Amino acid sequence: MVDPTSEQDAPTRLEAGGTNAIGRMLGVLGDEWTLLVLQQALTGVSRYAQFRANLPISNSVLTARLQRLSDEGMLERHVYQTNPLRAEYRITPRSRALWPVMLSIWEWERHWVADRADDLPVMHHDTCGHDFAPLMCCRACGKSVSARDVAAAWGPSGTWERSVPAGATRRRSDSDGAHGQAGLFPDTMTIFGNRWASALMGAAFRGLTRFSDFASALGAPPTLVADRLKAFCALGVLEATENPTRSDWVEYHLTEKGRAFFPVVVASLQWSEHWFVAPEGPALVLSHRSCGAELVATFTCDQCREPLAGHDISIRPSAEGGDLPRGGAET
């Protein structure tokens, strides 16, 4: 007899030559409503009415996102009442493992997006008893890691074409919900919530700077590349500068705000490679220039410098609010 728990804990095996781990990750996480539902689930919310009460979301959108997350193994539906029918949605090992991604998003938006600090949950490290910010470190050498410290190269399953989600990604219209877009992860979704935007950001982290290089690598229409570059400059994650040797060339470089998004990228990549396994091998290989090892990122507490584990983190809705249930899992 097959143990259903083992099946639930197992990664998804991808087809050879198909969408790789990056594409699957973007297809799941590149949607603001999905991130918000997962945020609620990781802090203990499990029932439909609770999600509706906590989020500015319509019934149709919530139903669709819960179904999608259940199909992807991110939530597990349990019927707790039959007349009338009532179900709750429990987090799974796959969704618990997202805690570094969510912490990284919260920390980036708190630091870099105006007026977000008061809206985002406070992260408390139960081990040392302090509120904290997560620090990304290299597991091999223990040093903190920034975008400048890391080299990236395509792995066996890595190409731009295979890194695009299989389903079309789009911006939601007002018809997607009673209140239109949620607007609760605004800058993150500008980067993450559109396949071309996320691909362009990935290209910037890999060192591309020229318009023609972005267009060639992504295989995207020039007008679309121009639109994304303009949006990223307006957001402040890229800045346009003239080439010192060619005044007719404009180059696009990551800003401090753009480079600070790197922990979100790394945490998302690590989650995707663990849970979506291509037979050829990983989509992207990161190496830590400082020690020469393949980068396996760990997240530590900036107060005590001890490694973080999801079960040691408490999440509070605000500095004044009470503790919500812990939503993480051991690493």
TrEMBL record:
It holds the Pfam family HxlR. The keyword Transcription applies. The keyword Nucleotide-binding does not apply. It comes from the Bacteria. Residues 157-181 are annotated as: Disordered. Residues 10-117, 182-280 form the HTH hxlR-type domain. InterPro entries: HTH_HxlR, WH-like_DNA-bd_sf, WH_DNA-bd_sf. GO terms for molecular function: DNA binding. This is DNA-binding HxlR family transcriptional regulator. The lineage of its organism: Bacteria, Bacillati, Actinomycetota, Actinomycetes, Propionibacteriales.
